[in-house]
Amino acid sequence: MIFKLMIYKSLCCICVLNILSFSVYAQKILPVPNIIFVLTDDLGYGDIGVFFQNKRKCSGDPSNPYEITPHIDQLAKSGAQFTQQYCNAPVCAPSRASLLTGVNQGNAHVRDNQFDKALEDNHTIGTLLKQAGYATVAIGKWGLQGEEDMSPNWPAHPLKRGFDHYFGYMRHRDGHEHYPVEGVYRGQKEVWNDYRNIAAGLDKCYTVDLWTAYAKKWIVDHVKSNAAEPFFMYLAYDAPHAVLELPTQAYPTGGGLHGGIQWLNEAGHMINTASGTVDSFVYPEYRNATYDDDHNPLTAEVPWPDTYKRYATVTRRIDDAVGDILQLLNDLDVADNTLVVFTSDNGPSIESYLPESFTPNYPTFFVSYGPFDGIKRDCWEGGVRVPTIAAWPGRIASETVINTPSMLSDWFATFADVANIPAPARTDGVSLLPSLTGKGRQENSLVYVEYFEEGITPKFEQFEVSRRGRQRNQMQMIRINNWVGVRYNIKSANDNFEIYDAVQDPKQTKDLSLLRRFDKIQSQMKDKVLQIRSVDSEAKRPYDNALIPGAVVNRKLNKGLNWKFFEKDLSYVISVRGMRPQLSGVTGSIKRTIVSDRKGMLLCEGYIKIPEDGKYNFLFQTSGKAFIRLHEAKLFDADFGYRSNTPLIQSVSLKKGFHPLAIYLLSDPSIENCVKMQYMRNGDSEWKDVSQNVFYH
Predict the structure, then answer these.
(1) Phi and psi at residue 547, in whole multiples of 5°?
(2) Is 150 strand, coil or helix?
(3) What mean pLDDT is predicted for residues 661-687?
(4) Among 144, 127, 188, 193, which residue's Cα sits nearest to residue 39?
(5) What residues contact residue 399 under an 8 Å CB cut-off, 6+ apart?
(6) Percent of the chain residues past pLDDT 90, beyond the cut
(7) Can you list the alpha helix ranges (DSSP code H) found in 304-398?
């Protein structure tokens, strides 16, 4: 085996040309299931029976009105509940973008309230699973198409982001109305079938029913025409969010292939609930519901306000839809080979588009935020914990409860694992398959949120006094083991985190940062949030220019880099988490060349030594494909759509010390993959080779 690494004076040339024969890494072979990802809009952790509402029901306390979600509860019983899964941002656009791209908000392209911003042209769950042989479809709310009204040619149309087919609301604001034709409270909306607006034929179509009917139709058509081809469905409901409109009628009985919601494909009567009166039906269990509003058993109970009858009805409608789809999978005999995930994009909302005559929509009525404080737009647990359930008969044991923390963006790596395809190197998440199946070692997920929102938190008396009417502005949350750090109205990187034990104190009542023994955790959090993120000029933070601290190095370092080679025929730069390298070594002086006659991934790791505090410019270019991380943050993405030999430049503020560097290079013997990587401190006049100042242990 011949391994050499050659670096020219201003050129780090890592040319992968020849590797002598060796045994191919035997990858695990998993059955490839269909995948249905059901995403709801502003559904709180506490809105689902198994997570919180059943406790209210079982309390027998008439002052605790409750919702019921029998089908979702059954889904949880048949599979796994995630009690500590977090969304990537406490509002829909950035949360959904991070889910679809597998990157956290520290490295995301869509951040804050950037509604309708174009999802970046990069790896998505759709592009990934298409490479694994999946048919892909997106149904429902998109909201990531691009701000300019370029209909139907939006720059980030789902069909341009890895989906074979799309049916739903393209614009973010369209999801604020659940009747596209009648536009009861927010006006008429457009519904897109790929590149065609078909709203004109959707009279009396309630969107929960509409998306469900189309999803069922698509599944039936696909299974009947191409049962051997696995499919991925991203089913994104625009409910229960805000407008709280009611269906036209009761949910049709039966469910599945011959019952439940059905697609009729008749203009003006497109689905079988497109009749009767729009915005009219309340579930019988809520229609005459009463509760003890004053906590006094001696006074008469009062009816639920109509607002909450609506909210409970919308939630129950989603529950019926889930049950309907699950029955269809059984009817088509594909349930055992389908992974179903159900979750929400963020915590519950106080928004309401109902007329002022209605009672305000406060999540305190059902305690939709569960045992936490915080709602949508908050970085407290109630704003970022989401009710997540996954079921896969035969692979996920029934009644599994997963208490380890994770994020929505972890589903990207999870689906890659399920589909037996490597996740891209840019992925920040980890596969949750070990937790789901009980097989293998579960890697720790990086739980991190950053978000900006003007205004204050609600002044609910149910919340801790310290966070009622709290100024939001720049916010951040990070979790390390059981410790959650939160800071609001951030002014600088030096601001302290409030620290809470998320397991023993889920309501976050005791701020542990006030205890001296948590000083080390405080410092660790302050360092970590700088080391895991990259700056985005369109979502500025007060800590963007803070000096990133180096790593704590307790071992002697030697000049050079560690390298590992993973043999695999690849078209993109992959994450090598959990993979075993075929070859590895050390590039002593980095004056040699690695040569290979096989395709694969080369990973070079070490530390770059920064001699003094300051802002440093890095330059990178390659004739092939690559991805580079500094600490855990993206430094350069030269993978998806990268044009060969295009120079990339990035500025980073660094403290004196050693900073971890990981260089992922795609190895293809047909391409002389020369890599140029240099750095220069601001104010200096000459670039230096990164290779001159890298170390390993």
Answers:
(1) -70, 125
(2) coil
(3) 89
(4) 144
(5) 77
(6) 90
(7) 306-331, 381-384
